Amino acid sequence: MDRLKTFGIYALCVILFFIFSNVMINVAIKSMYMPIDVELIERDTIKVDTNEAKATYVNGYVSGNIKNTGEGVVNTYIKIDLYSKRDILLGTRYVEITNMLPNETKDFRMGFKLTDVDHCKIGMVDELDENVTEEQFTSVELRFAQLLAAVILLCYFG
Questions:
Q1: Are residues 41 and 117 in the same domain?
Q2: 35 burial class (0-12, 13-18, 19+ CB within 10 angstroms)?
Q3: Are residues 51 and 129 in the same domain?
Q4: How many domains are contained in the chain?
Q5: Taking the CB of residue 3, how many other CB atoms lie within 10 A of it?
Q6: Quick one: the chain helix, strand, coil %, rounded to 5?
Q7: The whole model's pTM is what?
Q8: Whole-angstrom distance, CA of residue 64 vs CA of residue 53
Q9: Dihedrals φ, ψ of 70, to 5°?
Q10: Per-residue pLDDT tens digits for 10-28
Q11: Cβ neighbours of residue 47 closer than 8 Å, sequence gap 6 or more
Protein backbone atom coordinates (compact mmCIF):
# COMPACT_ATOMS: atom_id res chain seq x y z
CA MET A 1 0.00 0.00 0.00
CA ASP A 2 2.89 2.37 0.76
CA ARG A 3 4.34 1.72 -2.68
CA LEU A 4 1.05 2.74 -4.36
CA LYS A 5 0.88 5.90 -2.25
CA THR A 6 4.46 6.78 -3.22
CA PHE A 7 3.67 6.16 -6.88
CA GLY A 8 0.60 8.45 -6.60
CA ILE A 9 2.70 11.22 -5.05
CA TYR A 10 5.27 10.92 -7.86
CA ALA A 11 2.53 10.97 -10.51
CA LEU A 12 0.97 14.05 -8.89
CA CYS A 13 4.37 15.80 -8.82
CA VAL A 14 4.95 15.05 -12.51
CA ILE A 15 1.48 16.35 -13.45
CA LEU A 16 1.92 19.54 -11.39
CA PHE A 17 5.36 20.14 -12.91
CA PHE A 18 3.91 19.65 -16.42
CA ILE A 19 1.13 22.18 -15.76
CA PHE A 20 3.53 24.67 -14.16
CA SER A 21 6.03 24.43 -17.02
CA ASN A 22 3.33 24.90 -19.68
CA VAL A 23 1.99 28.00 -17.92
CA MET A 24 5.48 29.47 -17.61
CA ILE A 25 6.31 28.71 -21.26
CA ASN A 26 3.11 30.46 -22.41
CA VAL A 27 3.88 33.51 -20.25
CA ALA A 28 7.43 33.69 -21.63
CA ILE A 29 6.31 33.35 -25.23
CA LYS A 30 3.54 35.96 -24.90
CA SER A 31 5.97 38.45 -23.35
CA MET A 32 8.35 38.12 -26.32
CA TYR A 33 5.79 39.49 -28.82
CA MET A 34 6.08 43.21 -29.44
CA PRO A 35 3.45 45.33 -31.25
CA ILE A 36 4.13 46.33 -34.85
CA ASP A 37 2.74 49.36 -36.69
CA VAL A 38 -0.18 48.82 -39.06
CA GLU A 39 -1.15 50.99 -42.02
CA LEU A 40 -4.65 50.35 -43.37
CA ILE A 41 -5.45 50.95 -47.02
CA GLU A 42 -9.25 50.96 -47.07
CA ARG A 43 -11.93 50.77 -49.73
CA ASP A 44 -15.28 52.52 -49.80
CA THR A 45 -17.36 49.40 -49.21
CA ILE A 46 -15.06 47.42 -46.90
CA LYS A 47 -13.81 48.44 -43.45
CA VAL A 48 -10.85 46.66 -41.82
CA ASP A 49 -9.99 46.91 -38.12
CA THR A 50 -6.92 45.26 -36.62
CA ASN A 51 -7.17 43.98 -33.06
CA GLU A 52 -3.56 42.88 -32.72
CA ALA A 53 -0.41 42.97 -34.77
CA LYS A 54 2.58 41.55 -32.95
CA ALA A 55 5.91 40.02 -33.89
CA THR A 56 8.98 38.46 -32.37
CA TYR A 57 12.31 38.44 -34.17
CA VAL A 58 11.36 35.36 -36.21
CA ASN A 59 7.54 35.23 -36.44
CA GLY A 60 4.30 37.02 -35.64
CA TYR A 61 0.61 37.42 -36.36
CA VAL A 62 -1.99 39.96 -37.44
CA SER A 63 -5.61 39.62 -36.36
CA GLY A 64 -8.69 41.74 -36.70
CA ASN A 65 -12.07 41.93 -38.38
CA ILE A 66 -13.50 43.05 -41.68
CA LYS A 67 -16.94 44.56 -42.27
CA ASN A 68 -18.87 44.82 -45.51
CA THR A 69 -20.42 48.31 -45.53
CA GLY A 70 -21.60 48.08 -49.14
CA GLU A 71 -24.78 46.86 -50.77
CA GLY A 72 -23.73 43.58 -52.39
CA VAL A 73 -21.98 40.32 -51.56
CA VAL A 74 -18.19 40.64 -51.35
CA ASN A 75 -15.56 38.10 -52.43
CA THR A 76 -12.13 39.56 -51.82
CA TYR A 77 -8.68 38.96 -50.38
CA ILE A 78 -6.97 40.80 -47.54
CA LYS A 79 -3.39 41.50 -48.60
CA ILE A 80 -0.85 41.94 -45.79
CA ASP A 81 2.55 43.31 -46.85
CA LEU A 82 5.22 42.90 -44.16
CA TYR A 83 8.16 45.33 -44.05
CA SER A 84 11.46 45.68 -42.18
CA LYS A 85 12.67 48.83 -40.38
CA ARG A 86 14.30 50.02 -43.61
CA ASP A 87 11.01 49.67 -45.50
CA ILE A 88 12.08 46.53 -47.38
CA LEU A 89 9.23 44.21 -48.36
CA LEU A 90 9.91 40.92 -46.54
CA GLY A 91 6.82 39.05 -47.68
CA THR A 92 3.13 39.14 -48.50
CA ARG A 93 0.34 37.09 -46.97
CA TYR A 94 -3.28 36.76 -48.06
CA VAL A 95 -6.53 36.00 -46.25
CA GLU A 96 -9.46 34.93 -48.42
CA ILE A 97 -12.86 36.47 -47.60
CA THR A 98 -15.78 34.81 -49.42
CA ASN A 99 -19.54 35.36 -49.62
CA MET A 100 -19.66 38.29 -47.23
CA LEU A 101 -23.17 39.70 -47.01
CA PRO A 102 -23.95 43.43 -46.51
CA ASN A 103 -23.28 44.63 -42.92
CA GLU A 104 -21.65 41.29 -42.07
CA THR A 105 -18.48 41.18 -39.97
CA LYS A 106 -15.84 38.43 -40.14
CA ASP A 107 -12.73 37.86 -38.07
CA PHE A 108 -9.34 37.06 -39.58
CA ARG A 109 -5.97 35.97 -38.24
CA MET A 110 -2.81 35.41 -40.24
CA GLY A 111 0.43 34.10 -38.82
CA PHE A 112 3.79 34.60 -40.51
CA LYS A 113 7.35 33.34 -40.18
CA LEU A 114 9.54 36.20 -41.30
CA THR A 115 12.60 37.71 -39.63
CA ASP A 116 12.68 41.24 -38.19
CA VAL A 117 9.23 42.55 -39.20
CA ASP A 118 8.74 46.18 -38.12
CA HIS A 119 5.45 47.24 -39.73
CA CYS A 120 2.78 46.08 -42.17
CA LYS A 121 0.34 47.47 -44.71
CA ILE A 122 -3.10 45.91 -45.02
CA GLY A 123 -5.14 46.37 -48.18
CA MET A 124 -7.67 44.61 -50.38
CA VAL A 125 -7.34 42.94 -53.75
CA ASP A 126 -10.12 41.39 -55.84
CA GLU A 127 -7.89 39.10 -57.90
CA LEU A 128 -4.57 37.42 -57.27
CA ASP A 129 -1.64 37.58 -59.65
CA GLU A 130 -0.27 34.28 -60.96
CA ASN A 131 2.83 34.38 -58.70
CA VAL A 132 0.88 33.79 -55.47
CA THR A 133 1.76 30.47 -53.82
CA GLU A 134 -0.27 28.28 -51.47
CA GLU A 135 2.22 28.99 -48.67
CA GLN A 136 1.13 32.62 -48.64
CA PHE A 137 -2.33 31.45 -47.50
CA THR A 138 -1.29 28.79 -44.97
CA SER A 139 -1.12 30.22 -41.47
CA VAL A 140 1.42 29.18 -38.86
CA GLU A 141 -1.27 27.58 -36.68
CA LEU A 142 -2.42 25.33 -39.52
CA ARG A 143 1.11 24.17 -40.30
CA PHE A 144 1.68 23.40 -36.61
CA ALA A 145 -1.54 21.37 -36.51
CA GLN A 146 -0.45 19.42 -39.59
CA LEU A 147 2.95 18.72 -38.03
CA LEU A 148 1.37 17.63 -34.74
CA ALA A 149 -1.04 15.29 -36.55
CA ALA A 150 1.85 13.75 -38.50
CA VAL A 151 3.87 13.15 -35.31
CA ILE A 152 0.88 11.56 -33.58
CA LEU A 153 0.25 9.28 -36.55
CA LEU A 154 3.91 8.26 -36.70
CA CYS A 155 3.97 7.49 -32.98
CA TYR A 156 0.75 5.51 -33.17
CA PHE A 157 1.47 3.50 -36.33
CA GLY A 158 5.27 3.56 -36.29
A1: yes
A2: exposed
A3: yes
A4: 2
A5: 7
A6: 35, 40, 30
A7: 0.68
A8: 9
A9: -90, -165
A10: 999 999 999 999 888 888 7
A11: 66, 67, 69
Residues 72 and 12 grouped into a single domain: no
List, for residues 108-126, the tens digit of each pLDDT value: 888 888 889 999 999 888 8
Q: Which amino acid is at 88?
A: I
45 and 20 together in one domain: no
Asked if residue 93 and residue 26 are part of one domain, the reply reads no
Region 67-82 average pLDDT = 86
| Distance set, CA 90 to CA 28, 69, 80, 94 (Å) | 26, 31, 11, 14
Entry field: residues in the chain: 158
> Closest by alpha carbon to 93, among 108, 79, 107, 72?
79
Residue 77 belongs to what H/E stretch? strand 74-83
